[in-house]
Amino acid sequence: MKIAVIGTIVRDVLELPDGSVTHSLGGLLYTINALRACLDESDTVCPFCTVGEDVYSQVIRMYRNDPIVDLSGLIPVPGQNNRVRVVYHSREDRSEYSLSPLPPLSFDQVKAVLECDAIIVNMISGWDIHLETMKKIRKHFPGPIALDVHSLTLGRKENGLRYLRYPDRITEWIECADIVQMNEAEFKLITEKYPSPEFFWTASCFKQPKIINLTFGSRGSRSYLVDPEGVLAHDSAPYQRIEVVDPTGCGDAFMAGFLVGYLRSRDWKQAADQANRVAAVSGAFKGLPEPRGLKEKLEELHD
Length: 303
Fold this sequence. Notes:
The structure is a single chain. With 303 residues, this protein is α/β, with parallel strands linked by helices. The chain has helices at residues 28-38, 56-63, 107-110, 131-140, 170-175, 184-191, 197-204, 250-265, 268-282, 291-300; strands at residues 2-6, 9-15, 21-27, 44-52, 74-77, 83-88, 94-99, 118-122, 145-148, 154-156, 162-164, 179-183, 210-215, 221-227, 230-236. Strands 5-4-1-8-9-12-13-14-15 form a nine-stranded mixed sheet. Strands 3-2-6-7 form a four-stranded mixed sheet. A two-stranded antiparallel ribbon has the order 10-11. Helix 1 (28-38) packs parallel to helix 8 and helix 1 crosses helix 10 (291-300). One of its GO terms (molecular function) is kinase activity.
């Protein structure tokens, strides 16, 4: 199994609810490490992103001896890497600042994703790729594409503060994906222009069946299987055998856990349950979980 991941690596400064502060690399690394923990030794993770020259060597050192992670899609660029400061007011409420943004990836820079079995497009910055690039990927790629809406719903002020705003052409983004993930606030924002969520499903999911995952943090998740014949829903309870101490990256881990589980089983309900477990275990670490430790903890807690 070969999974491509498109997104943005960031330098995180996290001010957590307990008052502690952590500094680490993050962003797309949460997806990479969660995939690394969920996949077998015969599988491959292929990240695609630009990386600032100030952290490029550090990122390469993290994975250069890991045969599962293919680093050929990492593109060094001059200047500072994207930096993100996150201030948590509670586990679910936070303020986010995006500093030193990097340019979006072009289709030529990511076209090697077409050689993979599945693709995750994680819109960490919101401009990781343009919609036209997403459409080209969809046109030429027959396999499953998973989209985390994430920062498509965020604008950026001059001081870097991110704020919720209705995303442009969101139905076109969703039409390009087979699996779509968003949190509760993002879902409410996107569907507010429709009389009901059902109208949103009709507008954005009429061309082919889709799985929509809504993540609720400490309340678990709800997954929808949407096709022209109707909508099926599945509520997945939060995984409670471990304490979440740092929710950063839990959504990224959820997406990784869901996609791997779904590719293996083709059971969307089972995949959602696995995704909640992977997300919770990822949140048991402060800062970016190391892949081996995350994998060991997942195996220890395997039901």
